Amino acid sequence: MWTFIIILILVGILMLLLEILVIPGSGVAGVIGFGLMVAAIWLAYSREGTQAGHITLAVTLGVNLVGLLLALRSKTWKKAMLSTEIKGKVRTIDPQQLQIGNKGITVSRCAPMGKATFKDKFYEVSALSEFIDENAVIKVVKISGNKIFIKQIIK
pTM for the whole thing? Predict the structure, then answer.
């Protein structure tokens, strides 16, 4: 009977580890793991007696507390976490290539976002207020970070 109780406790701890490390957020594996440990402690009390139940409860709590303390140490998570950095940027705008006042042509309909070409380079642009059809002549009105705001030039 002791082997069955020990197996229940170990499977319960394994399910809690799965909940924390592999499938966080679902809660199912954690509840099953906790339930298995409670069932093992209950079996120890009911089949082996009060003293054996107390020992099983103490050992189970001790193993869980030691596991919790090891998990809370910062070195444990530093080994598990990704430490690389991404230094690249998306859609950076070169100030020498594109400036306020530059003229271009829309490639797609800007409703209010679309694509346009300036000096044979494609950019994603935003119309300030109105919709702009494709192949319309436009000019850059504002550049804010990596967003380009345009306005249609009416002939």
Answer: 0.49
Domains of the chain: 2-79 (no CATH), 103-152 (2.40.50.140)
The pair of structure tokens assigned to 109 is 């309909």
Instruction: Please answer whether residues 110 and 150 qualify as being in contact, where contact means their C-beta atoms are separated by less than 8 angstroms.
Output: yes
94: Cα separation from own chain's centroid:
30
55 Cβ contact list (under 8 Å, min separation 6): 44
User: Which has the minimum average pLDDT: 84-88, 105-109, 116-120?
Assistant: 84-88
Beta-carbon-side half-sphere exposure of residue 135 (alpha carbons within 13 Å): 0
Residue 80: how many CB atoms within 10 A of its CB?
A: 9
Instruction: Say if residues 60 and 42 touch (Cβ distance below 8 Å).
Output: no
Q: Are 19 and 43 spatial neighbours (Cβ–Cβ below 8 Å)?
A: no
C-alpha closest to that of 16 among 2, 28, 5: 28
Q: What is the rounded distance in angstroms from the CA atom of residue 97 to the CA atom of residue 138? A: 16
Structure confidence by residue, pLDDT tens digits, 85-102: 888 767 677 777 888 999
